[in-house]
Amino acid sequence: MARGLIAICLITLLACSSVEGRGLELAHLNGAEHQSVGDHVHGVVANVTVGGFNFQLNLSNPKLVEELKIKRSDFPSDFMFGAATSAAQSEGSAKEGGRGPSGWDHRMETLPEGSLSGGINQEGIDHYNSLIDELIKNGITPFVTIYHFDMPLALEEKYGGLLNRSFVNDFKDYSELLFKKFGDRVKHWFTINEPNILAQYGYELGISPPGRCSLPSTLCALGSPVKCFETVGPCKFGGNSSTEPYVAAHNIILAHATVVKLYKEKYQEQQKGEVGIVLASQYFLPYTQSEEDKAAAGRLFDFYLGWFMGPLVFGDYPQSMKERVKDRLPTFSAEEKVLLNGSLGLVGINYYTSTYAKHKAPPPGEALRYSFDQWAETIAIQDEEILGVTNSHWPEGLQRLLEYVKDKYQNPKLYISENGLSDHKDNDSPLEVLLEDPYRISFVTRHLYRINKAIKNGVNVKGYFCWALFDDIEWGMGFNRVGIYFVDFSNYTRYPKLSVKWFRAFLQG
């Protein structure tokens, strides 16, 4: 049952178990093309032994075999491993338990009307108390995300949600309720998940709640005009794509900083926890070595990460944003800059893909907006155009992203809060086929190798949580085979995939 305005990340604490021995054998397929669902590869299968089990993992190039040479004992003893879920995407039961509707209308909230004045749903509180207790009982440390894409509809209708400064106070009240009810056991909090996606998708492109935008519905929102996955809008709820993404993000930044201040002043000394934020970014590689393309990559980093990390580390937006967005970019008062400075906390990084960055001026005659303000376009990196890239997934890109954050933003404490890939199999296949996911094992292993390299280079990474624990609803894309547990969507029975067996062996030895 969906019972709270909370997304839970499950962090398995098996750090005391290590894998001391690991066999590795490389098999070539005599030049024949080998292709696995979900990970398009050619020519190489690596036989890897973990914890007494043998796994055949696909590689696109024999040079990548080094990225499979990683074991639990290569990481610090306090490094956390786990799998993440989101209440809105996996719990369901949208009409049960006293919930109030959210923008996505997939789940129920602990505050059905969105604010304390609307009353507290005790059934939701009881459910999460029980869940947290059960996690801890089973040796699992919860990391809790307070706001994961699910604005209470009541607040949207009352004052416009993220566009109104009232959100800051309501979010503070809600966060304090969670600290009071769960903070004796929950020691790791993320305030808001992927605020750049909330702002862009909800207020520039209109493809997620609240669906506000001011663009023609013929424009492509995701993909390219040649291969468009989703068009904008329809923009039938009003909006201003030139200004509202920046207003929404501005209030998100202030809300985060306000909650961090609240926790530090009232709860941290007794509860001894920490608060941070989850940010999503690709790694941006200059398309050429021209100064223009290098600058374009830098701007994309600013508009993705710096949009939030700049204010939360240094007290203001990146200079590249101020120069291009100009008076459409809200400003912080002197008092707010004091609040913001140093309020970042721990950072969750959601990483999936890397891309080229190329300089591109905004099209003449069109209103400026977030996507144009960057003066850059992204171009997909083709498979094996760079060693290790498959379907835009590039483990080395994660290492480079982590090292970029270290150098640019004072080496904050980092967790990889999401990293994973989807299955693309025929759902009518036999169950035993649907549970085989060696490509996911290869994906996770190679990313862990790169995280470990980043740690050796001084990056303060403290944990890795794969996305997702269960097959789930990936928002507008519908049901998705992204989990390490297979879910039969006809009856919601869960089955462990091969990756669960591997993950357990990796952690336990």
From TrEMBL:
Endpoints of the signal sequence: 1-21
**What keywords does the record list, in alphabetical order?**
Signal
Region (Disordered) residue ranges read 86-108
GO MF annotation, one? beta-glucosidase activity
- Compositionally biased tracts (Basic and acidic residues): 93-108
Similarity remark: Belongs to the glycosyl hydrolase 1 family.
* Protein name according to UniProt: Beta-glucosidase
The record lists the organism as Malus domestica (Apple)
Starting at the broadest rank, the lineage of the source organism is: Eukaryota, Viridiplantae, Streptophyta, Embryophyta, Tracheophyta
